[in-house]
C-alpha cells in the first residue's frame, strides 16, 4: 500500500467594498482537469485527489459569491 499525502488547495476572497460577501461556489482547473462549478463555501484545504507528487501542474480558479450569480474572472495560471 502506498500512502499519498492528501493535497489541498486554499485561497482568500479579495477584499471588496461591499461587506459580508461570502463565496457560494468555486471552480478549479488543473492542466486538463476541470472540477466544474462546485457549490461550496470551502476555501481552505480543498482536497485534490488525482495529483501525483513530483509533477508540474498549472492551476487556476474562479469563484461565485453572494453578490452576483456571475463568476469572478479566472485567476492567472499559476
Radius of gyration: 14 Å
Helix-strand string: EEEEEE
Counted by DSSP, the helix tally is 0
For the report, how would you describe the main beta sheet?
4 strands, antiparallel
Determine the oligomeric state from the structure: single chain
Structural class: mainly beta
Outline the structure in words.
With 78 residues, the protein is an all-beta fold. It has a domain at 1-9 and 19-47 and 56-68: Immunoglobulins (Immunoglobulin-like, Sandwich). Helix content is 0%, strand content 32%. It has strands at 7-9, 23-30, 33-34, 38-39, 46-48, 59-65. Strands 2, 3, 4 and 6 form a four-stranded antiparallel sheet that branches. Strands 1-5 form a two-stranded antiparallel sheet. The model has no long low-confidence stretch (mean pLDDT 86).
Keywords:
78 residues; mainly beta; Immunoglobulin-like; four-stranded antiparallel β-sheet; 6 strands
List the helices and strands and how they pair.
Layout lengths: L6 E3 L13 E8 L2 E2 L3 E2 L6 E3 L10 E7 L13
Antiparallel strand pairs: 1-5, 2-3, 2-4, 2-6
